[in-house]
Structures are given as C-alpha cells and as structure tokens.
Amino acid sequence: MPPFRDRAEDDVDTSSNPRMTQQQVCRAIRDQIILGVFAPGQRLTEDTLAETFGVSRVPVREALRTLEAEGFAFSRPYAGTFVAELTEEEAADLLEIRALLEPLCASRAAQRRTPEQLGRLKELTALGQDAVRAGRFDELTRLNSRFHEVLAEASGSAMLAQLITQLGWKIAWVYAVELPRRAADSWYEHERICGALEAGDADAARRLVAEHIGHATTAYRLRERGAATAGS
Q: What does the angle CA 74 – CA 75 – CA 76 come to, to the nearest 5 degrees?
C-alpha cells in the first residue's frame, strides 16, 4: 500500500520541486490524470514527464509502474504507457464500496478520533469552504481526498485507512467533473460530519457520511443521465 500523505506533503508544490521523490512524481501524475490534464488514452512518455518535473527518467518509470498497478495507466508492448479510462461499471463498483466502508469509518472515528485529527478535519473543511467561496475549484480534489483520508485514519483502523486512501484516488477521478456543481453543499456536509465527530455521536456520524455519499452518488448519476440525453 502507498504511504499516507501528511500535511507537509499536502502543501508541497510538486510541479516545481527539483528534489521530487518517486512517490511525489507518482502523486503529481496521478493528480493530473484525476483532473483531466492527462486525458484517457493519452500517451505518457518518460522523457516529457522527466523534463516537466525536473527529474531523471528513473523515478518517472517507477511512478508509471505504480500508476499502472493502481489502474490509472496501462502499457502496450512496443507502444508505451497510456492513461486508462474509468468505465461506468468500475465507477459504479467504487461508489458502492465507498457507501459501505466510509460510514463505518465515521462511526468509529466518532469514538476514537484524537483532538489533533478533529482539528485537522476542521481545518480542511475551512480551507475547502474558503476555496469554494473564492472559486478555486482546482484545490478541492486534493482537499476533499485528504478530508476523507484523515476521517479514515481517525477510525483507528490501519486497514480501513489504507483501503480508503486508495479508494479515494479513484473516487476523486469519478467525481472530478462534478466539483463546481456540488462544491458548496459538499463542504457544508463535511462541517456537519465534524460536528458529529466532536460530539462523539457515532450514529449521527455514520448517518451523515452515508447521506453525504448518497448525495454525491446522486449527482454523479444525474450527470450520467444528462450526458446520455445530450448524446441522443
């Protein structure tokens, strides 16, 4: 499993860091795939990526192998490595798994979270709400992913936290196009989740996270329906 990103890593501008590690290169490429900078089917060339991030080809090569293992990329013999495409079936599976795991995380977190974890969740919520008000939607994917990672860590279960971290990268990929549409509601829901955690109310935390995921899933399905209507 990949290591968790801590707060210091969240604040690093990996696009201009001349001492980027393989993990940071991997994260930077993954973030750009999630945000659509690298489109499905686009070729990812080692030379171009190494020049972009100011590193040698070695960390880029290792990063691409990791991304392939995670399902963000695929390779073709004698052709190279390309950005994968998330199918609707895969997206549906991810959303269903998320709906099962994250309410459990929240319920446990209400009873096990530390003051530091609660403080970090509140801080991330404030940062997200500020980004929404300022229209800085490009910041929301990382802030949202980190909120859910910290929530999972607060459950006290290393296994749950690892699962949610990896799941969160794919969930961000599913939802990236929905950011402006549901951003304000989403971060208000995060604020309510923090309130349940602060009160130590496991049932409310479970319910609020389940509702939060349900709202996001509904928005995604509405987008699918709209795209199908437009196509017809």
A: 135
